[in-house]
Amino acid sequence: TPGEPIKCRAAVAWGAKQPIKIEEVWVDPPKEGEVRVRVIANALCHTDMYTLDGEDPEGLFPCILGHEAGAVVVDVGPGVTSVAPGDRVIPCYTPECRRLDCIFCQSDKTNLCPRIRGTQGKGLMPDGTSRFRLASSDERLFHFMGCSTFSEFTVLAEISCAKISPAAPLEQVCLLGCGVATGWGAVWNTVKVEAGSTVAVFGLGAVGLAVVQAARIAGAREIFAIDVNAAKFDAARELGASVCINPRDLPDGTSIVAELQRRTSWGVDYTFDATGSTQVMRDALEAAHRGWGVSCVIGVAGAGKEIATRPFQLVTGRTWKGTAFGGWKSRTHVPQLVRRVLSGELPVHRYITHTFDGLEGTQAAIDALHSGDCLRAVVRY
Ligand code: NAD
Ligand code: AHE
Ligand code: ZN
C-alpha cells in the first residue's frame, strides 16, 4: 500500500571490515520530494568496498551500501512530478536539482549539484532523517551516497532519480549509475581527449576500462593500459588498449613514469588514475606530457591520504584535474547514455564478469570483486 512502510531484506554493513549481514528492514514511505523504488539489479563498485573497509572519511555504520543500480519506482512522496510508479530509474549519487538558483546546475562547467550533499554525506535523507529501520529492533540505519541500493527497496531524492527508457535491461544499464559512466565522462567531459592524442590509464577495473573504451572512441592514437594485475589485460585490449604494461614487470630501476616517457619521448597527452592510490596519482601526473599534459584523478583515496608532486611538474605545463561521476549531469545525461547503450553504440556487456541471483548474492559479489578477475558483479534481486 502506498504510504505504508515496506518490510524487505537488505544487506546491512555493521562496521568497518565486518561482513555484511542480510537483515529484515522497514523502508519508510517517501516524504516530500522523495521516491521509493524496488531495486532490480545492483552492481558493486570499488567505492562500496572502500567504505566497507573503513577507508571512507564519511563512512557511517550501520548503513546500507550500494550505489550502482537499476530500479523501478514504487510510490512517490508529495510534490514529486518527474517520475511516477512503474518508471525505470537509475539512482544517481550526484543529483541534479535544476533549480534556477542553483549556480552549479545552471553552469555547464560542472555536474556537482550541492543541493542535498550535506545530508547525503551524513547518511540521511534531505530532511535529516533516515527511511531505514531494522525490523527486529527499530534501530535506525544510515543511507549511503543517497542511494543505498543493497536493499530490495530504497528511498531516493527525486533529484537523484534518472528516469530511463522502459526498454532498458536494468541488469546491464545499472553500470551507468557509477563506474562505466564515470570512466567515459572522464574522457569525454572532464579532459576532452581529442583524436590523435596519447592516453595512459592506471588501474583496469571497470572505471579504467571505460576510460580505455572512451579514449578509443575519441580516436586516441595510442592507449597505454597499466595494471599490477595482468589478468585485466585481455579486456583492456578488447576495449581498445594498444599497449598493456604491468609496472612490476619493468626492469629493476625503471619506473612506470620513465617507461611511459621512453615510449612517448615527452610524456602522455592525457593520463588517468583509476586506482585510488596516491602514489599512482603522482605517477600519472608526472607521466603527463611536458607543456600540455593533463592528468585526471578518478580514484578515491583512503582517509588521511594526500597527493604530492614537485610544483615544477605544473610549472612545466602539466594540469592536475579530477572528476566526480565523469562530469555527467545525472538526470539529463544518464538517460541519454542509456539510449546509446540500447542502440548498440556503447556496449557494456564486457564489464559484467559475474552475475548472482537474490540479495544473498551480495556477499558472493563482494568476494568476486576482491578476487582479482572481476570487473563488475551484478546482483539481480
Ligand atoms: P577496481 O578495484 O575494480 O579496479 C582497480 C584496479 O586498479 C584493479 O584492477 C587493480 O589491480 C588496479 N591497481 C591497484 N593498484 C594499482 C597500482 N599501484 N598500479 C596499477 N594498477 C593498480 O575499482 P573500480 O570500481 O574500477 O574503481 C576504480 C577507482 O575509482 C576506485 O578508487 C573507485 O573508488 C573510484 N571511483 C571513482 C569515481 C568518481 O566519480 N571519481 C567513480 C567510480 C569509482
Ligand atoms: N566520501 C569521501 C570520498 C568519496 C568520493 O570521492 N566519492 C566520489 C564518488 S566515488 C563513486 O564510486 C565522488 O564523486 N565524490 C564527490 C562527492 O560529492 O561525494 C570523502 O573523502 O569524504
Ligand atoms: Zn561507484
Topology of helices and strands:
Blueprint: E1 6-12, E2 21-27, E3 34-43, H1 46-52, E4 69-76, E5 88-91, H2 117-121, E6 132-134, E7 140-141, E8 153-157, E9 161-163, H3 170-173, H4 179-190, E10 198-202, H5 206-217, E11 222-226, H6 233-239, E12 243-245, H7 256-264, E13 270-273, H8 278-286, E14 294-297, H9 312-315, E15 319-322, H10 330-342, E16 352-357, H11 361-371, E17 376-380
Parallel strand pairs: 10-11, 10-13, 11-12, 13-14, 14-15, 16-17
Antiparallel strand pairs: 1-2, 2-6, 3-4, 3-8, 3-17, 4-5, 5-9, 6-7
Bound molecules: nicotinamide-adenine-dinucleotide, ligand AHE and zinc ion.
Describe this structure in words.
It contains 11 helices and 17 strands. Strand 1 (6-12) and strand 2 form a beta hairpin. The longest helix has 13 residues, at 330-342. The model has no long low-confidence stretch (mean pLDDT 98). It is globular, with a radius of gyration of 21 Å. With 381 residues, the protein is α/β, with parallel strands linked by helices. Helix 4 (179-190) packs across helix 5 (206-217). It folds into 2 domains: 6-177 and 348-380, Alpha-Beta Complex (Quinone Oxidoreductase, Chain A, domain 1), CATH 3.90.180; 182-324, 3-Layer(aba) Sandwich (Rossmann fold). The two termini are 21 Å apart. It has helices at 46-52, 117-121, 170-173, 179-190, 206-217, 233-239, 256-264, 278-286, 312-315, 330-342, 361-371, and strands at 6-12, 21-27, 34-43, 69-76, 88-91, 132-134, 140-141, 153-157, 161-163, 198-202, 222-226, 243-245, 270-273, 294-297, 319-322, 352-357, 376-380. The strands form 3 sheets. Strands 3, 4, 5, 8, 9, 16 and 17 form a 7-stranded mixed sheet that branches. Bound molecules: nicotinamide-adenine-dinucleotide, ligand AHE and zinc ion (ZN). Ligand AHE binds next to loops.
